[in-house]
Each structure stands twice: as C-alpha cells, then as structure tokens.
Amino acid sequence: MSTDESLSISGPLDAEELRKIDAWWRACNYLSVGMIYLRANPLLKEPLSTEHVKHRLLGHWGASPALSFAWAHLNRLIKRDELDVIFIAGPGHGAPGVLGPSYLEGTYSEVYPDKSEDTEGMRKFFKQFSFPGQIGSHVTPETPGSIHEGGELGYSLAHAYGAAFDNPDLIVACVVGDGEAETGPLATAWHSNKFLNPIRDGAVLPILNLNGYKIANPTILARISHEELEAMFIGYGYRPYFVEGSDPAEMHQKMASVVDEAIAEIKTIQKSARESGIAERPRWPMIVLRSPKGWTGPKTINGHQSEGSWRSHQVPFADAGTSSSGLRLLEEWLQSYRPEELFDDNGRLAEELRELSPQGQRRMSANLHANGGLLRKALKLPDFRDYAVEVNRLGQAEHENTKPLGEFLRDVLKNNMTNFRIFGPDETASNRLQAVYGASKKTWMADFLPEDEDGGELSRDGRVMEMLSEHTLVGWLEGYLLTGRHGFFHTYEAFAHVVDSMFNQHAKWLDTSKNHVPWRAKVSSQNILLSSTVWRQDHNGFSHQDPGFIDLVTNKSPSVTRVYLPPDANTLLSVADHCLRSTDYINVIVADKQKHLQFLTIEEAIVHCTKGVGLWERASNDQGQDPDVVMACCGDVATLEALAATAILREHLPDLKVRFVNVVDLFKLQPNTEHPHGLSHREFDSLFTVDKPVIFNFHGYPWLIHKLAYRFKNHENLHVRGYKERGNINTPMELAILNEVDRFNLVIDVIDRVPKLQIRAAHLKELMKNEIIENLRYAHQHGTDKPEITGWQWPF
Predict the structure, then answer these.
(1) Given 3.40.50.920, 1.10.3210.10, 3.40.50.460, 1.10.260.40, which CATH number is that of 613-790?
(2) Angstrom distance (rounded) from CA 191 to CA 180
(3) How far is it, in rounded angstroms, from Cα 211 to Cα 178?
(4) pLDDT of 339-378, one tens digit each?
(5) CA-to-CA distance for 300 and 572, rounded, in angstroms?
(6) What homologous superfamily does CATH list for 4-370?
(7) Number of continuous H segments (helices) and E segments (strands) in the chain
C-alpha cells in the first residue's frame, strides 16, 4: 500500500500534511541512495549508465531512512511550536540520513556554497560522500548540526545529556541504534535521567531505532518481547512510547502522534517544575521506533531478502557499476522515490516541501548549540595566585598538591554557576577536591535517604557530576563542551584507560574541526586531571599502577594535545588556570593527591610553567661551568627522588657539577618541528648539553621520553628511568626502588655514566646498594618507610 493510496489513515496529520511529510522523507531517502551510489546524473535526467556510478561503493544505507524519518517529524514540531532542538545520530555510519536533511534545509549549501541547491550542486553533494579527499561515511565535524562523531558506537546518549545540562530551553533528540545499544557506554548512559533537573536543564528525547540487525547479526533488543523491552525502559525510569511497523503512511501517523505526546509531556514536566520550584525526578518520555533495516530499499536482491535484513546494513548490492542487472535495480530503486515530484527542473527542492523546514537557527542543521563555540563565553576566573601554598625554601614543607586546586575550582564554580561543571567518578573527595562542595554539591535526582544528610553532599541543583562510569562522565563533558560550556574531569590515573577510545574520538573531532572545518567556532578545551597516581598507589597495589594514558595522548595530533606534569601545588594552580582559559585542546594534567614536598613559590611557578621546562638554580651547582651530568625530571615523585639524588651527589661529591632540569610541559621534549610546544634543537642542546650524560627521572613509562626526544643530538646520552610494571602492596620508597626511580639508583646511574666517577665513586656506589637493601628490609619489617625517607628535606 503506497502512501498516496492510504491518505485516509487516521491520525494527527491531515491528508495534505501526510502527503508532504512523506514526500520530504522520500527526498531524504533519494539523497541517501544517491550519496552511496552516484557521481553524476543526480536527478536521472538521462538513462542511468555505469559512468554515473561510483567506482567504489561505500557507506551505510541500513540506518539512514529511520534517521531522516525522525528528523522529518521533529521538524514538524519545531516549526509548529518554535522549539529549540538539536539532533544526535547514534548509528555509527548513518550519515546519509543526516546529510540529506541538512541539504534539504539549505544549511549544507550555506556552509559549502559549491554544494548548491541545484543539479550541479547535488552532483557534487553526491560525489563527495565517502570519496577520497572529501567526507566520510559517518557523521563527522564537517556535518552541519552535529556534535557527535559517529566513528565509534556508544556515546550518543551521554553526549545528548551533556548538551541538555544548563540548557533549559533545548531539546536534544538522540536516535540510538539498536546495535549501539549493546555497548557498555550506551547502557550506562540510560541512567543519565537521574541527573537531569527539569528546572534548570533542557530535555533529552531518546529514540531507540530497532531495525533488527547489526552488520551481520540480529540485535539483542530487537529479539526480546515487547513486554520485556517495555519493562526494561520503565525500570530505567522512562515512559516508553512505541512506533512499530513498515507501511510509511501508518508509520507517519503513529510517529506524529507519539512525537506530539512526547514533546507535550516534556513541556508539562518542565512547566510544573519551574512554576512550583520543586525539582523531582520525573519519568521522562522516550520513543522506541521499530522499523525495517534499509526501509524503503529493495525488498529482495538476487533471491535474498534485503529490506529488513542485515544485508541492507551497508551497500545493499555492489554491482551497480559493473552489471546491467545491478544498474537496472539501482535505477528502479531511485525512481521509486519519484524524484520528479520532489525537485524542480533546476534540482531545487519543490517549494511546497521547502516550507516544511524550520527557518534560520531553528533548523536542526543550523542550531547554534551544534556549533557551541558561537555560544561560548569565557569563564570568570578568580586569581589563582590567591590559592597559593607558601614556599619559603625549596623542598622544606609538604602539602597535598590537589587540595589548593579544589579551593580554586570551588570559586570557579561560584563565579560560573550556569556554564561550568566538574565531572568525576565518585572520587572528588578522594582526589582532595572536596572544597568544591562549598560552592555546589553533587547532582542527584534519584531518591534521598536520611543518612545522606550527614556528609552525603547531594543536591537537586548540584554542579558536581559523579557517577561510577567514566564513559558517561566524559560523554556528558564532551556534550557540554561542544555546546558552548566549560568543564573539568578528574579520575584515578590508572583508570583513565577506560575512556581511551573516547579520548581518541574527541581528539579526532577537535583536530578536524580546528584544521579542516573553518566554520566551526572554538570550543572550550577538555581538561583532564589524572590523580591518585602510580607512585602513590602502594595501598591499592599493582592493579592501580598504570601511568600509560599519557602515552596514548602523545599519539594524537599535536595541534590539539597537551600534557602537563606539575611537580607541586603552585605549578598545578598555574597549569590549571592556563588550561581553563584555553580552547580546542585536550589538556591532560598529572598531579597526585597525597602530601608532597613543595618546591616553588607561586611567582616562580608561573615563570617555570610559562617556559614549560627550566633549570632549577637552587638545585644546581654548575653555574658558569659545563656540567658533568644533567639530572632531569618530570612528575611530582620523579622530581622528589631526582632532587634527593642530587643532594646525595652534592654531599658526597662536592666537586661534581650537576645541572638540575625540571619538565612541566611534556611536549617540550619533542622538537618544535613536531609539536608547537617543542624545543628547538638549540634550546634543547643548551639545557641538556650536546655530549654530557642526562639522567632523566620520569613519572611514566621510560620509553615515552625516548619516543619524544629521539631526534635531538644528545639523545644517545639520555638515560631514562620510569615505571616498569613492577609493583604490589609496597611502601612508596619500595615501589620506587622496584622500578629504579629512587634516589639511590639515580646516584648509581650518575656514577656509571660520568667517566671520572666510575672508579673514584666506588665507595658511594656501594653505599647506595646498601641503602637499597636496607630500605627494602625496613619496609618489609615495619610496613612503612624509614623516617629519614618520609621526613627528607632539601639540605642546601
């Protein structure tokens, strides 16, 4: 039964509305097929030939019709009720279902004038899809209206909720693929409704598209009963609405009815909460859209079912350019959408269909929230100097490095109560950032119990986001940043790996946006604090000892990645202030939460962090002379042990000339031809010499330093100590010794590598070996380190 034959089907759409909305959707589907298959003859003005078909057929058809179907029905409500809506496409390679609407709304041609709304523009629009040097097969930064990279599944719903936080008038429509729904990140993201406040936040309308298949297998949620699926979403706290079927006319009426009801319910929830001032957790609506995979495509191909089958997931048939039967099938498929009814002779969408789209920034493809840098306002930052730790002398007093940062972030929150949030997996207090609760408590829309009043720090209007899912937290943060706001994420260092692939995708998004999509405005940087670090995980043991996240960061584009390892509280404050002001970066900061010796005054810290790497004059004794050795370090514990080793050398070998160099900005160790923060060869040679041994004590895996610095002249004399996967339940010194980053092994390294010491310093070398044995014995006997270790201070 065709749409034209079924206009009498009852529903909220009258016959004319039904005819037009179906025609607009047919135009979307026509464009989707054209993108996958055609490089010429876009409107079939002449019989289709193999010359019109792309040589390489790439892309994904299966999810695209449902995406544009949802888009069409959302447009109707946006236009009728003047709604503010953005669209997130979860299905990984559903770009045709988003690009088509963007083109029909005119936004694509506005952003890319060569893809004009005419026959030639449509030809270019088709040809660019999945074509070398052009755009990919998934929703990417080049796609107007998108904030979600479709290259990896699982993050769409978390991104949607992140976009809705602090956006009270925004509705985020998020189509979740049923394959995507099987991923861990997506499964936890359903719980985001326990954090959405109907007074101050916008709304998320999840639309689960059950098309039944992944690339080659059925999807789980499509193969359970209606009752089980409904119970699952009721259990998640939603009110599910179902739109199921395959007949276009019936589905249009069902979808129109359900979208009407869902949007009305959202408005009712918000109106009630905002008028009463009472923020309780409602049962938010969501939609289950059960439609065939590859909907409206060929029913069968070569005797096998295509529509409603996994066979329509990607390119339903690949012989359109090589066989007459494939070419005929493609032409019949394209003609089934009746393009002559949809586009005029010049290739422009018919006027009666153009009227269906919202206007200006109401278009989902042109909504400002989907280009959040246009809405971004700089943070009102307090002066970080006001939170400084007093340092009278190098290495005398101890302080928890992250505690002043928490006090600084508390006041950042106070000054920015509508556009800044802090995200962390149940570890805000653990990471010594608990001062932030003085400005805002933890967001919590679920039930409260009496015991929560005693230090639970929960609030309906909190701005500290805690959930034991790094995936969901980072997804929220990314959605929040990409729609124009600011945020800060912290986690235990070892467990940052949970979001390795999320980091990868966001880095790729930023790199593409920054370097290849000039119309995208700058967004706030993603700021990541790694605390509870490897060298102070002696109590949790081997499982919590992994400094490798920063290795991953160094693999990504130097235009968007930054890594900082401040050695004390004041350098951490300086780094944090810099990162919060920055745009279009991922800033990774490594700073432990435990008490550590303090090294620099706040003014010294500012200078040191501005340079990123520098000599510490008070630790060096080579002034005016060539050093015999360079003692270099990067990281808090690495700096402490390097400083202690330098003190031993200066005490026992007073004529030895030691240069002490500390690195805060890790990328200073790359040449400036490889990273914009890198040192020139002359700068590196000046600091690290061209021929003297360099003993480098590093926070992370030692080979990372070699990877960064291998191009420099003195690399052959660079000897790096770092974590070597040796750990258990150890004392801090025992753990350092096991990995040979301790002061005693560093002294031995110097003796072994400075030629004049190899014989004359034999007694000191023996003393260091004895110290290693004694410190291990003491740790195993007493369960703690020796007092002279725990209470050590810089003696000079």
Answers:
(1) 3.40.50.920
(2) 16
(3) 7
(4) 999 999 999 999 999 999 999 999 999 999 999 999 999 9
(5) 63
(6) Thiamin diphosphate (ThDP)-binding fold, Pyr/PP domains (3.40.50.970)
(7) 26, 22
